[in-house]
Amino acid sequence: MKPLHALVIGAGIGGTAAAIALRRAGLDVSLFEQTVAQREAGAGIQVSPNASRLLRRYGLGDAMARAAVRPSAVVFRRWQDGRVLGREELGDALENRYGSPYYHFHRADLIALLADAFGPKEIKLGRRLIDVAQDESGVTAHFEDGTSERGDLLVGADGIHSRVRERLFGEEKPRFSGQIAYRGLAPAERVAHLDLPLDVTNWVGPGGHFVHYFVSAGRFLNFVAVSEEATWTREQWSDRGSISDAAKIYEGWHPQIATILNAVDETFKWALFDRNPFPEWTERRVALLGDACHPMLPFMAQGAAQAIEDGAALAACLKQAAFDIPAAFRTYVALRKPRATAVQEGSRANSKSFHLHDGPQQLERDQIFVTRGVRGSPEAMNRLYGYDAEAVAPTLEEQR
Fold first, then answer.
1. What is the pLDDT of residues 355-365, one digit of tens each?
2. CATH code, domain carrying 290
3. Segment holding 111, helix H or strand E
4. What is the H or E stretch that residue 383 is in?
């Protein structure tokens, strides 16, 4: 039997990982990207064991170990004096517990190794989607350059401003969270005198938090500085930022933060958007994944991981359903929607918890860090990091 032909729209982390997973499941895959060259603004990303175990199965274990940093711990510190509020071991402890590492990547490094695994010459660049047409026998993607491509199913992995979702369900603007993030990269040698460990450190304080960790095999220190802003009036959701503006936000905070900010050459300012959970993820022969259907704030470090899980689960569902597309899509939504929604909600909750002003609520939060851990209870971490997106697909289908 001729394999199903899948069209994947969007060659970011989620789309390229999904294309690899679908090919492993036996599908013929075409991967499209609207940009003419794959570029990624300087920013770090965290890949937890629930995602790294999947990428290892895709044959990327050695490439990840070379390109990434395996952090030793996650540490929460008080904004003003640097007092440790909580620490949880990552490194060997987490890998032994969940069978796969926790990694920090530069986004460009992760996209590059995914593209290499799929085949960079096979990614069709400069293909901006304008429309999707479905009928009883297939689905057609129409592109701005006048070309079109026919397939048996289409996967919309084209981000929070998904054109695929818009064509299926109409336009709906994302929700501005009231927070902005400055992001940047400092060459490691410029912060060497700080003698920073290979931790992910989160400084939490009134109206903001500041995260830093090493990426690119330790060559750069990535930072994300999140603060509150009432409105975002620009059409673009990111813009070049000012280091001095970022530094003003953190005046009075621990001096280490100013040192890191002053070590970068440039910073980018990002508006943080998310959406309420979407009621529909699929429509006939089209399925959405990642930010196209469950964009989330970055405060559980799960955006990329959940998108990678989506692709693995979708491929497993198709294979388990003997490539019956409607049946596979039903199982995919039943599996993925509750989990992704829970992570969305948890990320929103953290956005408030990290920014508490000193007072009773802050003291209560700090005590929770001591009693339940900075990332939640062991049971919550087991649910998050112990999850196997490929293994659960057959399990759910067998229960039906």
1. 999 999 999 99
2. 3.50.50.60
3. helix 107-118
4. helix 378-385
- Residue written as tokens 């980018």? 268
Is 213 designated active site?
A: yes
Rg of the Cα atoms in the chain: 21
**According to the model, what pLDDT value does residue 271 have?**
87
Could you tell me which residues are beta bridge partners of residue 129? 143
Q: Is 268 helix (H, G, I), strand (E, B) or coil?
A: strand
The DSSP secondary-structure symbol of 356 reads P
Is-above-0.90 flag for pTM?
yes
Q: Which of 213, 250, 385, 387 is catalytic?
A: 213
Return the structure tokens found at 308: 């990678």
DSSP conformational letter for 390 = H
Angle at 295 between CA 294 and CA 301, to 5 degrees: 110
The b-or-e profile of 142-153 (16+ CB within 10 A means b, else e) is: ebeeeeebebbb
Q: Which residues contact 200 (CB under 8 A, 6 or more apart)?
A: 46, 71, 73, 74, 75, 90, 104, 211, 212, 213
Is there a domain that residue 48 lies in? yes
Domain that holds residue 117: 5-173+275-399
Spatial distance between the Cα atoms of 25 and 3, rounded to a whole number of angstroms:
10
Q: Is residue 168 part of a domain?
A: yes
Q: Label the pairing between strands 129-135 and 267-274.
A: unpaired
User: CA 139, CA 178: separation in Å to the nearest integer?
Assistant: 38
How many domains does the chain fold into?
1
Reported residue count of the chain is 400
Separation of alpha carbons 78 and 378, rounded Å: 23
> What pLDDT digit, counting tens, does each position of 265-275 carry?
999 888 888 88
